[in-house]
Request: fold
Amino acid sequence: MNDTVENVKGYYGKQLRSKANLRSNSCCCAEGPSEEVRRILPLIADEILDRFYGCESPLPPLSEGMTVLYLGCGTGRDVYIASKLVGESGRVIGVDMTAEQIETAAKYRDEQRERFGRKTSNVQFLQGYIEDLK
Ligand SMILES: C[S@@+](CC[C@H](N)C(=O)[O-])C[C@H]1O[C@@H](n2cnc3c(N)ncnc32)[C@H](O)[C@@H]1O
Reply:
């Protein structure tokens, strides 16, 4: 992989410890989270919320039973929100190239399953490059 990719991985994986360290505020959404997302946020673990580096959750609210592939999922906040939205009959696969973030995301798989009151998790995290999903 090239230097740019390695720099991006280093930024998200090693330099950033929380969203307070972000070196840009270019990622923001004026409207804030949707009503559906706002209801789910209190169910998400603090560390996942604190390490959210995205620009809100572009997730359709009526997605029961769907399969969601989330590319560049980071530490998984939106993956877990999607997990709640798709329900037990749906599933969510989060992909990110940064090992540290995938590790953090996956650490909460069982805890989030419990927080959502489910018997099985419908979430899977995979470390990989968006350009090379095979
Ligand atoms: C702006 S951050 C957003 C992370 C996450 N969606 C969130 O909301 O916290 C962009 C993410 O994309 C990942 N990423 C960037 N380029 C990638 C690529 N080519 N393949 C896989 N992941 C990539 C980075 O590792 C980083 O976690």
About this structure: The chain has a mean pLDDT of 92. Residues 65 and 90 are 4 Å apart (CA to CA).
